[in-house]
């Protein structure tokens, strides 16, 4: 991905590498737009500084 | 056995009764569950071609249950306030041998083999299921309308050209219009409270884990909550009482004592401290004038009732909460529906396909960063809420927009103060606070401490009594 976001070519390659088949150029174009937005939101998300702070996952040992 | 009908009923059409009122009439045998169910089926026949609140109406099943309820009540076996009360559920709740479509072409023929726990509990207490109500596909949407789903759009009972709020689109408008006496919805980022706000009903997103989600199609495991939409606050407390409680079928079900949610309703709030949240960061939009005016009135009502109001600041902006919600939802939702996306996404509507695509492009490290941030935000939000007995804040920043205005539809959905409480897990009730100049309902949220739904209802009742205009119903 370049700084401006995902190109259609990058998106098509990514989709193919992850097994997504039968993608049309229009679909790839929209996927690239959405992927750019997702990447931006992920990048803007503040990071929790402490390495000890765990995710709010849902695994619990049965009690 | 026939149960005589109150002659006064002729001047009080069924949709005008609250659940509480109907229940009293049933228990004293002044109305019959059979007649009540027939009235609701007639109401559905009368208005639902325009309202589209239902996907599937279960008329014969409801009639059978109504006959059983009547026999039980006539035989002295009244089961409680929900006995004989007709209700609907968002069509993502499973009912054995009944199709669950979840509003999707992917599930048009899907039949579950077991009924959801919440419906099992309601039916065990004698409530009568009328049918499966309209929903956005898999509970997904940003508010944008693409007209690409297999069922027609639900329409707002107050103005059919206006939005119902999503994703429990049929439930709010159905309760407002009287096609169901109450309904069950599900809420990942606001999907109970947004329809409640749009249609002027009470919608409760209870504390995460209080109500079982077993048998309800998941949307996002760590944020999903199931709960009731009702005409009044008291009705809501009655339904929550029936469905709350631990369920081994739900991995996140909380094993906590269940309170008496009706006990405080009508009691004084004198001496309580109510936090008020009015600021959500520089990127949050301003409240519409009528929403703000009625929120001011709600503050005044609480103050006059003897509560002390304090300004409360949340630890993040609305946008900050929403980013965390979005990332978690994208990731979990794709995990839930990955096979559908990889193999049959051509059957998906655009809103769902977009969300799946967002999950597809999400980095694992960003997902984990969001879940780590979620824990921190929940802790800090709880620390703020814990300084008060309850909190008053906006629900949606506008009233329900018209269908043609995509920008306002998205703003109504995405710029609402709802996902904050999905991230933190606190109970939050959307209630009606009056109407705007165009006759559309305005709303507010009452928020409580974890598992203190009783106080939420107690405070909300004070506002409803003063501002809720529960005698005013949509004209259809």
Task: Kindly describe this structure.
The complex is a heterodimer of chains A (63) and B (476). With 63 residues, chain A is mainly α. Chain A has a domain at 8-44. Helix content of chain A is 48%, strand content 0%. Chain A has two helices and no strands. Chain A is elongated. Chain B is built from 14 helices and eleven strands. In chain B, strand 7 (273-276), helix 8 and strand 8 form a beta-alpha-beta unit. An eleven-stranded mixed β-sheet of chain B has the order 1-3-2-4-6-5-10-11-9-7-8, sandwiched between helices. The longest helix of chain B is centred in the last third of the chain and has 27 residues, at 318-344. In chain B, helix 2 (33-51) packs antiparallel against helix 3 and helix 9 (318-344) crosses helix 10. With 476 residues, chain B is α/β, with parallel strands linked by helices. Chain B starts with 18 loop residues before the first helix and ends in a 9-residue tail after the last helix. Chain B is globular and about 60 Å long. Chain B has a single domain, classed as Amidase signature (AS) domain (Amidase signature (AS) enzymes, Alpha-Beta Complex).
């Amino acid at each position: 991905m370049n700084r401006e976001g995902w190109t259609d070519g990058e998106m098509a390659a990514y989709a193919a590498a992850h097994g997504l088949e039968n993608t049309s150029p229009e679909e790839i174009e929209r996927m690239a737009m959405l992927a750019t937005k997702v990447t931006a939101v992920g990048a803007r998300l503040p990071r929790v500084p402490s390495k000890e702070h765990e995710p709010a996952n849902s695994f619990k040992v049965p009690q | 056995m026939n149960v005589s009908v109150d002659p006064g009923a002729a001047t009080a059409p069924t949709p005008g009764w609250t659940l509480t009122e109907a229940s009293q009439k049933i228990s004293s045998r002044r109305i019959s569950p059979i007649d009540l169910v027939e009235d609701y089926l007639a109401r559905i026949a009368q208005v639902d071609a325009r309202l589209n609140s239902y996907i599937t109406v279960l008329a014969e099943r409801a009639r059978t249950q109504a006959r059983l309820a009547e026999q039980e009540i006539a035989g002295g076996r009244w089961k409680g306030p929900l006995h004989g009360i007709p209700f609907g559920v968002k069509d993502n709740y499973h009912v054995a041998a009944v199709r669950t479509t979840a509003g999707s072409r992917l599930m048009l023929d899907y039949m579950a083999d077991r009924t959801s726990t919440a419906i099992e509990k309601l039916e065990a207490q004698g409530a009568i299921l009328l049918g499966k109500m309209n929903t956005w596909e898999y509970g997904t949407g940003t508010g944008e309308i693409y007209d690409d789903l297999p069922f027609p759009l639900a329409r707002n009972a107050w103005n059919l050209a206006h939005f119902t709020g999503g994703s429990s689109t049929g439930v709010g408008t159905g309760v407002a219009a009287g096609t169901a006496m109450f309904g069950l919805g599900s809420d990942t980022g606001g999907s109970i409270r947004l329809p409640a706000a749009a249609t002027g009903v009470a919608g409760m997103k209870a504390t995460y884990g209080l109500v079982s989600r077993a048998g309800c199609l998941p949307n996002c495991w760590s944020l999903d909550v199931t709960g009731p939409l009702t005409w009044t606050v008291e009705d809501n407390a009655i339904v929550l009482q029936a469905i709350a409680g631990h369920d081994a079928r739900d991995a996140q079900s909380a094993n906590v004592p269940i309170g008496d949610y009706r006990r405080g309703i009508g009691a004084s709030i004198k001496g309580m401290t109510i936090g008020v949240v009015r600021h959500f960061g520089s990127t949050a939009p301003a409240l519409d004038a009528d929403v703000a005016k009625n929120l001011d009135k709600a503050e005044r009502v609480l103050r006059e009732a003897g509560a002390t109001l304090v300004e409360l600041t949340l630890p993040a902006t609305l946008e900050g909460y929403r980013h965390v919600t979005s990332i978690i939802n994208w990731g979990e939702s794709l995990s839930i529906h990955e096979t559908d996306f990889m193999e049959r996404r051509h059957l998906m509507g655009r809103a769902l396909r977009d969300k799946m695509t967002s999950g597809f492009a999400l980095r694992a490290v960003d997902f984990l960063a969001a879940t780590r941030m979620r824990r921190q935000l929940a802790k800090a939000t709880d620390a703020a809420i814990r300084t008060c007995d309850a909190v008053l804040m906006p629900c949606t920043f506008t009233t329900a927009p018209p269908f043609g205005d995509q920008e306002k539809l998205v703003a109504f959905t995405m710029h609402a103060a709802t996902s904050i409480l999905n991230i933190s897990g606190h109970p939050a009730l959307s209630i009606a606070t009056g109407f705007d100049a165009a006759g559309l309902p305005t709303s507010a949220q009452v928020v409580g401490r974890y598992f203190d739904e009783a106080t939420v209802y107690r405070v909300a009742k004070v506002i409803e009594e003063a501002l809720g205009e529960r005698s005013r119903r949509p004209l259809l």
